[in-house]
Automatic annotation (TrEMBL):
A Pfam family that the UniProt record links to this protein: cNMP_binding
Superkingdom of origin: Bacteria
Matches recorded under Gene3D superfamilies: Jelly Rolls (2.60.120.10)
Record-annotated Cyclic nucleotide-binding domain positions: 19-86
Protein name: Cyclic nucleotide-binding domain-containing protein
Amino acid sequence: MTLTQKLSCMEAYLKRLCSENQVTEQEMKKLLARMKMMHLDKGEVLAPEATDESGLYIIACGILHAFTSCEGADKTIEFLSAGDTLFCYHTDEWSVKTLTKSMVYYISGEEVEELCATSTSFANLIRQLTEYQLYFREEMYVNAHKQTVKEKYLSLFANIPDILYRVPLEYITSYLGTEVTSLGYAAGRR
């Protein structure tokens, strides 16, 4: 990835991150300055050796998926892309893996606690990020059980328009919960 592509990607995710979490760019830049930038290759699992460690990840670039393994097959729970935040997901039940080359910011749970103890603005920022994630996850869970395949399909492509060009079809159909061989067919299903 060229420097120009990285800067463009980072600018886009910063705007999305601020608008979705209702925080200022200045607040977010202060947090990002305290975080470690990680460049991940396709197929890497976030925190594979640290199942008990908590931490905050902010996705700068790339597409990842949260998945669970069931009867030897991975079932995609959700897709994550630039601007999404997540708290360490890796458990015995589910994990997060990169589907494309990705850049993510990371800060450990211990460092988050230290920042919150020393700064009210950081504490408020982390609270806002946490509240948004909890709200988003609850909405996603409720919608996943009441949305049709078509609604899930349209929502996915509204959030990540280029996903079809960047992610193998098997992950998308796994997320949709269907065995289609054509996404055109999925878009028409009820």
